[in-house]
Amino acid sequence: MRNLTERVAVCVATGLYSGFFPIVAGTVGTIPAWLIAYFVLRGDQSLIISAAVVFSVLSVWSGTTCERLWGHDPKKIVMDEWAGMLVAVIALPYTLTAYVIAFFAFRFFDVVKVPPAAQAERLRSGWGITMDDIIAGVYANLFTRLVLYALEHWWPELAGLN
What we know:
- By secondary structure, this protein is mainly alpha-helical.
- The chain has one domain (4-159).
- Helices cover 73% and strands 0% of the residues.
- The protein has eight helices and no strands.
- Helix 1 (4-13) packs across helix 3 (45-70) and helix 4 (79-88) runs parallel beside helix 7 (125-154).
């Protein structure tokens, strides 16, 4: 790294260096975003949406910068996971059940790359890094809603909605 901009981009892109974890970096890198969503943002929708937008912008910028250093979409870039995880919890009930389901659903959809996520990953620079995770976050959000709906009707005490 040659300059301050690259150093800041690495710190941001790796989710405060959580992306350097040697195994399952994407999952480990998603944990801080989940903790921020659950314990800091605490279901405040305006804060969640604002954070999702900020993380998305940071992901595109830092991803573009770091891609020049490390090549296309390296595993240590996890700011895209932060953005996608926040999208996954937009307008969900603020319950531990909902947020845990959203976490695992997001990780599933991020790994599986259901179309158009796979196609979005091929976009240039930080856009490709970020957009597949935003799409995975949308899928995770919808899937979580379906699971919560089913739980509410068949197992309401587990859904945590009563």
